[in-house]
Amino acid sequence: RGGYYVVKVREHLKVISLQTNFCNTDNYWLLINSTDPAGQLQWLVEQLLQAERDGDKVHIIGHIAPGLHSCNPVWSSNYHLIVNRFESTIVGQFFGHTHHDSVEIHYDDKNVS
């Protein structure tokens, strides 16, 4: 549903693929619902809660990286809240779209150490 899915690639490791066109600033449907189009972020929380309960680690993949100028700031903010909550479960995030190699470090909003 919606082009996002989860795959268990081996014991205790899941890959969650997000449909990040839902955050694309060129997506005019975001004018109707920029918070959580298609319920994807709620689904992500449910998947991460299950992974946490099962003791699984998660890699998240997608095209447009949250935080880029081409990703809606409301969607990005909600995504970052989720990442902060599940910092012990999410062990890697991999995005494309920029057409160059880069690394982005995600810091906890409340504890920058």
TrEMBL record:
Membrane spanning residue stretches? none
Listed name of the protein: Sphingomyelin phosphodiesterase
Q: Name one GO cellular component term.
A: lysosome
Q: Which GO terms describe its molecular function?
A: acid sphingomyelin phosphodiesterase activity
Keyword annotations for this protein? Glycoprotein, Hydrolase
Q: One of this protein's GO BP terms?
A: ceramide biosynthetic process
InterPro entries documented for this protein: Metallo-depent_PP-like
The record ties this protein, via SUPFAM superfamilies, to: Metallo-dependent phosphatases
